[in-house]
Amino acid sequence: MTPGKAYLDADAIHRLAGRSDAMGAWLVVHCWGVIFGAVALFALWPNPLTFLLAVVLIGSRQLGLAILMHDAAHNALFNNRRINEFAGEWLCGRPILAELASYRHYHLTHHRYTQTEKDPDLVLSAKFPTSHASLRRKFIRDLTGQTGVRQVVGQIVMSFRLAGDDDAIAAATEDAALAFKARDLWKSLLVFLGVALLMSTLGQWWYGLAFWLLPYLTWFQLVLRIRNIAEHGATEQSEDPLRNVRTTRAGPIARALLAPYWVNYHLEHHMIMHVPCWRLPDLHRALCDAGIGDRMRISPNYGRALAEAGW
């Protein structure tokens, strides 16, 4: 479960895995600050360019919320366990229709069985590499909202199917397709709609639709797919932790629009999964200093990672 132990000593791992309540709070504040800052940018200078920029930035920070929830699932967002659970659930997960406990259960299974037949995420990565035309169709469906609408409708239907059926809920937690789906979806919907209502209250009536629902249905779906492809798409289906996952180098623009909060350091995350996201660059350097940098699967950019998957 901790492949990094083969290359780093216990003291180094302990230092890298140190959590910080202050840093966790800053990351959550930063994420929501970018979201509402993007809305404010359009409100101050309303034009098509600032509208598009706001949608893209907010969609990328919706992915950012998913990443911070992911850190909370590893108990790495905050040092204080109660704050970690509250922030991961209500400030990061529920606003994007996700739920911490079900995500944690499925995701730890992914770590245990990465790129093997028991990996619940294998259904996402096994289809790659694929054709350029197939990827183009997927991206078009994402950007036009087709993927998002289908997932939201499916999530609502699934919540009714699972309601009150504990046996069905237990079985569903083994399905990667339900990773972000809570049996009490109504709580997530209330938070999701609450964010949209707040935006409309602070601005104009349509702000919630334009700057919360629209990014969620479009750009968030696209970057979520790109993230999934870059992490495990077209990698080895094996138990080698240096080859069955990919780290992708990301410059400032990619970090702002595609890969917030160091999510691109995915190989490092699999090596020691309880290292906080903001310490992953340090973990990367430590692994390279340990002499395995040339053995790690690293893509120079997201374009190259997508090319390996068929783009």
From TrEMBL:
Protein name: Fatty acid desaturase family protein
EC number: 1.14.19.-
Enzyme class name: oxidoreductase
Entry-linked InterPro entries: FA_desaturase_dom, Fatty_acid_desaturase
Keywords: Membrane, Oxidoreductase, Transmembrane, Transmembrane helix
Domain Fatty acid desaturase residues, every copy: 48-287
Signal peptide: none
Residue stretches spanning the membrane: 24-45, 51-73, 189-214
Top-level taxon: Bacteria
